[in-house]
Amino acid sequence: MNKQLIDQITNAIKSVMPTDQEVYPLHTPKFQGNEWKYMKDCIDSTWVSSVGKYVDQFEKELAAYTGVKRAIAVTNGTAALHLSLIVTGVQPGDEVLIPSLSFVATANAVTYCQATPHFVDCDQKTLGINVKKLFAYLETNTFVKQGQLYNKHTNNRISTIVPMHTFGHPVDMDELLELAKQFDLKVVEDAAEGLGSFYKGKHVGSFGDTAALSFNGNKVITTGGGGAVLTNDETLADRAKHLSTVAKVPHQWEYIHDEIGFNYRMPNINAALGCAQLEQIPLFLEKKRNLAYQYNKVIKSIEGIEFFTEKEHNHSNYWLNAILLDDPDINLRNEIIQRLHKEKILVRPIWKPLNELVMYQNCPRMDLSVSKDLNERIINLPSNVWE
Amino acid sequence: MNKQLIDQITNAIKSVMPTDQEVYPLHTPKFQGNEWKYMKDCIDSTWVSSVGKYVDQFEKELAAYTGVKRAIAVTNGTAALHLSLIVTGVQPGDEVLIPSLSFVATANAVTYCQATPHFVDCDQKTLGINVKKLFAYLETNTFVKQGQLYNKHTNNRISTIVPMHTFGHPVDMDELLELAKQFDLKVVEDAAEGLGSFYKGKHVGSFGDTAALSFNGNKVITTGGGGAVLTNDETLADRAKHLSTVAKVPHQWEYIHDEIGFNYRMPNINAALGCAQLEQIPLFLEKKRNLAYQYNKVIKSIEGIEFFTEKEHNHSNYWLNAILLDDPDINLRNEIIQRLHKEKILVRPIWKPLNELVMYQNCPRMDLSVSKDLNERIINLPSNVWE
Ligand SMILES: Cc1ncc(COP(=O)(O)O)c(C=O)c1O
Ligand SMILES: Cc1ncc(COP(=O)(O)O)c(C=O)c1O
Fold first, then answer.
1. B349–A217 CB contact, under 8 Å
2. Which residues carry the post-translational modification N6-(pyridoxal phosphate)lysine, per the record (chains A, B) (predicted)?
3. CA distance linking residue B29 with residue A364, whole number of Å
4. Residue A309 belongs to a domain
5. Do B164 and B285 share a domain, yes or no?
């Protein structure tokens, strides 16, 4: 039974891969635009560091593309999340609601604020936060005091929720914002994987109080390492920028800093790469969506698995393609992965649930059975922009 | 009196500046080597992100140049300090001895560890930690319990001392290491400004348990933004590298992280810049030392001020040149600065003592009168590698 299924899956995926590659990684960056030109301009002008025209240009173009008022370019997505959490008001001792299925940076950023991740279950439909289930959980496990939400069991304030748009697939933001409103939660979108994804026609990261993007080497566009804070709130934007530049107060020559800041500003040389990459985003997205279309076509007919497709209201960047086994079976999942690795197709499972990592295993959580189920079912497929 | 002195200083400094510039900043980077070649190679190979041959090469070459066993390339000097403090064992609640005259990042890095900066006075001779004065202070204000040093007044553990090599001038490391040994302190060198500086023939940053370098745009060499942890201890090096790469445990496909890590790894594209810059370091240092020689020549004859020169046993990179007024006089200092700014010579005072910044004004400290005195006397001069 399993052997036949594994053969079918392997053949289907191989049929989609180009034939001229030695190895098929999940992602490799593509540089076919003005990358050279802009970087050479940086070097020639000697503006490579944290002040420079490409940083400004990259921020303006990012804001325009994602439809927010302000974008602040920073060293990476983790820094963007950290700043987002601070400026929206996360305090030491708070709990922050995050999905149990995410990259570890989502939880780490909470910890950098001396706050505690509070793990929330995921949803079969979106792979993101399971809003309905969370609603019921919050109703019975929290209380409100002076307009603030508290965890009944720990007595800690729950200040913020972090919806993460898994693999680029948008969370149902209407539902999520409704819940946030009901429970007085700030919203920080982890849109690290979401550049080019839209919910009801609006770009992800434009719904929350703030959002974080990533331009790591594996993302839709790359700046080497990089990220951005997105927000429609000028005050939050100014504070995020201030914190990212060591909280230095403008002065002709004095070194005055008015709070504990960070060196999180994106260097100009990396922003130059970003400007060139952003120009190519329509092409990248077209190719990504086309690859997903091809996967879906060959996988649709295989019984026992499903290719994950965008849901109603969503336009996904298909940053990372995924198949789901009909039934949770971690052995079968691993067998499939092993077999594809033999073919040099470097598929991976979804992240281990964050609540299972040693440093997070004692954090508060709701029932996480859907996340566990998804973890035993999901395999991520190469999602490169080939040729 | 003052007017005459200000005229003399202005004329002396102007006489050293090249005549073809519109403005004279403290530093601008120079790219006259293989910068473009290596960066183009990065783009062509698509290895721009945090894995790639230039990161490895840069680390090897840095270690060789500074004479340490291991260098770990990270996003900036602040990240290098943060990791250095963690791996040498700074714990939440600890106090860390740092000079009151430093860039704010030295204190911030301590705070990121949930430790407290404990401010130490500086020395007229080195501009770094005043070791003799600190010795006397520790003798009367600390006690030892189970081989650990404690602050008598706060009862907090004092775990670590951070000598900073101000403007590239080495601290007297023999004295400092003797003190550290006597009081069981770990040593983290803040060598952010010290690339190319040597104490008794050994590169700064090679004396402590760990050290931090910076490759910010204003430093001796630049990677856009960047830094490095230096250490002779393989275990500390491995841990710093592990922490800088999100504490990810090697596995073919599983995402396992075994502690709270960071995204602090230097991207390959920035390391490519670093490799090209490092090749030019002998040239940069020669020019910097030559500029200092010229400053000294024209300033020597002016009564009332002194040009800061390297002390016995030291070979300084003269990263940032400085003059000192004979007597503390903040008004005179500011008048000189103002006058030179009018001439487009963008001189600056040394940093405001960190203990005077709002977020650090309640931190423990010893008498800081020398630092205060130095703050009212020092003016930093343009230290560019011209032409
Ligand atoms: C969901 C998620 N959050 C946060 C991050 C952190 O971004 P970065 O790697 O740029 O720090 C990533 C990407 O790595 C991610 O996938
Ligand atoms: C003394 C000192 N420490 C730390 C730093 C921090 O380095 P970076 O700016 O690369 O984070 C700097 C430089 O900016 C510095 O001068």
1. no
2. 219
3. 49
4. yes
5. no
Same domain, yes or no, for B242 and B128?
yes
Complex ipTM tops 0.90: yes
Distance from the alpha carbon of residue A274 to the mean position of ligand 1, in angstroms: 16
Using a CB-CB cut-off of 8 Å, the residues of chain B touching A336 are none
Given the residues B219, B241, B287, B288, select the one marked as catalytic: B219
Residues A269 and A293 in one domain: no
Question: Taking CB atoms and a 6 Å cutoff, what residues make up the pocket around ligand 2?
Answer: A 263; B 76-78, 81, 102-103, 105-106, 164, 190, 192-193, 214, 216, 227
Give residue-wise pLDDT tens across range A11-27: 999 999 999 899 999 99
Strands A158-161 and A95-99 come out as parallel
In whole angstroms, give the CA distance from residue B175 to residue B114. Answer: 29
What is the extent of the structural domain holding A215?
Answer: 34-279
Whether residues B144 and B237 share a domain: the answer is yes
- The last residue of one of the domains, among B224, B246, B279, is B279
Q: Nearest to residue B57, comparing CAs of B279, B218, B224? A: B279
Q: What backbone torsions phi and psi does residue A355 show, to the nearest 5 degrees?
A: -70, -10
- Using an 8 Å Cβ cutoff, are A151 and A171 in contact? no
Domain identity same for B242 and B96: yes
pTM: 0.98
B78, B111, B169, best to mutate for ligand 2 pocket (most atoms within 8 Å of CB): B78
Q: Residue B32 and residue B43: Cα distance in Å, rounded?
A: 19
Taking only the tens place, the pLDDT of each residue in A73-104 is 999 999 999 999 999 999 999 999 999 999 99
Q: What is the mean pLDDT of residues B316-323?
A: 98
In a domain, B376, yes or no: no
Q: In angstroms, rounded to a whole number, what is the distance separating the alpha carbons of residues B130 and B122?
A: 5
CATH of the domain at A206: 3.40.640.10
The answer on B101 and B206 residing in a single domain is yes
To test the ligand 1 pocket, which listed residue (A214, A273, A352, A380) has its Cβ within 8 A of the most ligand atoms?
A214
Overall domain count for chain B: 2
| Separation in Å, CA of B64 to nearest CA in chain A | 25
- What is the set of active-site residues of A? 219
pLDDT tens digit sequence for B337-359:
999 999 999 999 999 999 999 99
